[in-house]
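Appendix B. Worked example

We walk through a single record from start to finish. Start with the input: the chain for MFS transporter, Streptomyces termitum, length 482.
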Amino acid sequence: MSTTATAKAPAPGPQGPGAVSPIDRYFRVTERGSTFAREIRGGFATFFAMAYIIVLNPIILGSAKDMYGHQLDGGQLVTATVLSAAFSTLLMGVIGNVPIALAAGLGVNTVVALQLAPNMSWPDAMGMVFLAGIVVMLLVATGLRERVMNAVPVSLRKGIAIGIGFFIMLIGLVDSGFVSRIPDAAHTTVPLQLGADGHLNGWPVLVFVLGTLLTLALIVRKVPGAILISIVVMTIVAMVINAVADIPSWGLTTPEWPGNPVSSPDFGLLGEMSLFGGFSKVGVLTGVLFVFTVLLSCFFDAMGTILGVGDEAKLMDTDGNFPGINKVLLVDGLAVASGGATSSSATTCFVESTAGVGEGARTGLASLVTGALFSVALFLTPLATMVPSQAATPALLAVGFLILAGSVKDIDWSDYTVAIPAFLAMVMMPFTYSITNGIGIGFIAFTVLRLAAGRAREVPAAMYAVSAVFVFYYAMPALGLT
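Next comes the structure step. The output line below is what the pipeline stores for this chain.
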């Protein structure tokens, strides 16, 4: 009998005898019950589910001005957004080995655009984002990240998430022209109105309305890539309308087909940040709170996404723990910092990664595929910059709803000491147009109500400290410190 005949053949895993290649061993494809085909398919699914951020992030950041009236260039923002997404997602695949993709976070970019930038220069604001990423990495290195997360009650964390969802929904309504600010000359206490004059007028607003209905209909039908499909369809509709009708203004972007849809990426924003310049503009305490707000805006959302995707991908052990989570958290911290370095706002884990998991992805190989597709998108900037906000902002309403639907059920409404703070956090963000205010008021209310209920021992020391900082922050004007 020959040696070949007696040798033990490799176990035929999901990919058969050939499933022991170096790539398979590194990514543990067979070990996790996946195949190369599933990983590739999952990588494509995740990319198309989250590719809308290539359009939305430049619209949100590009519509804001810093304290000097400067605005970021749309084409450069597309490059920055895609670059940070490609870099972070590829890194997650190689180091974290999980099917989680990353890109500029919705919610965090609103903090940067509407709270940081108006009080400093854009480089100052991006420097604070970079510092938040450094803090995340330090928390991971010292093992404090999970302990910090556990200091904030689940219900309050969910309330903060919902508040961010409401906030980005309001931004979508305003940026589309569906809702507008009533000018002070009107002498009314009502701050907002429907449309530009109390009515819905104009083709751009119609594009937004139809886009919202289409997006929600596709979500109800559970169509993969619903948000991206809606953006593409409504951009085409907007192009047709713009070609046949006299449209006074689409706002930031006029939907016209570019002369050349492919171009070289513009890296003009890369490295345009000032680490500590913002503190000289707003003061040390306010600056620290701004960094803290950026940190919180992506901190808990990323942790929830990581655990949620890990659970759905069956990556948890028998005790419900995520093996190797520190590597994943470290990459997440690097991603936040990379967002500041590229001026694309903090980059964080995207829950749309579940689209890839649904296609069978179980390893970082899927993230490599997603990252590679983002890299290709670097050369398609003209296509992204032709999308009008009216075609893209329906995505903000959809994402806001999905955040609400995924979080509201986890709030313990029977415990008023945490339900009321969660409620205050979620409503104060849109009503004060500030995520910082929502977090601060929520934290203070939680501490005060637990003390009032005689449950002081149930308030973590970290919550006392942060609440005290926020109290001092709100008292600064009265104390003459601003």
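Two observations about the output. Residues 32-475 form one domain. The chain has one domain: 32-475.
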